[in-house]
Amino acid sequence: MLSKAKTMEALNIMYEMFPEAECELTHKDPFQLLIAVILSAQATDVSVNKATPALFAAYPTPEALAAAPIEDIIQKIRTIGLYRNKAKNIKACAQQLLEKFNGEVPRTREELVTLPGVGRKTANVVMGDAFNEPAIAVDTHVERVSKRLRFCKLSASVLEVEATLMKKVPKELWVKTHHTLIFFGRYHCLARNPKCEICPLLYMCQEGKTRMGLNQ
Q: Does pTM top 0.90 for this prediction?
């Protein structure tokens, strides 16, 4: 596992590679972000962004979404994977926002995870991007990059990856790190064809060196 200093050395290089890293889900307020993140589970941000303009135009508030017929919601998001279950979740989520939180998106993880369709990862994204609360959401990109570069153990669970990053990265950089790791994983250190041959982090990446035949 890389030391705290080496982890920050790697992250600083990533910050330079992707200085504009940010949430790529289209949204105008915390409610729209919450719904978009729920819809993004096991789906791409691109597919979500294609569906949400019509969804938010029709149902821009928790009140509107909570009152919407489930079949109408399904029609607007049917291009997204698992759309039937997600339609039920976002409608129920809107209803709970009205019933429990006066129509406002809660700011704490403890409250957010009580909403339908919201797990720890979704809650962390909303905390960080809607409210600028320090949080690191571990998605598939964050987990892959963290393990490839040995920021954490290869056997680490998602929670352990999150905990390790929180220990090694200053709190004020958590949200920035979350987005930077996603961009690095999405556009450079891809799952199947990572760009090892042009990677400025190859010198510290044992997996990359093995892939390039440099460890022999």
A: yes
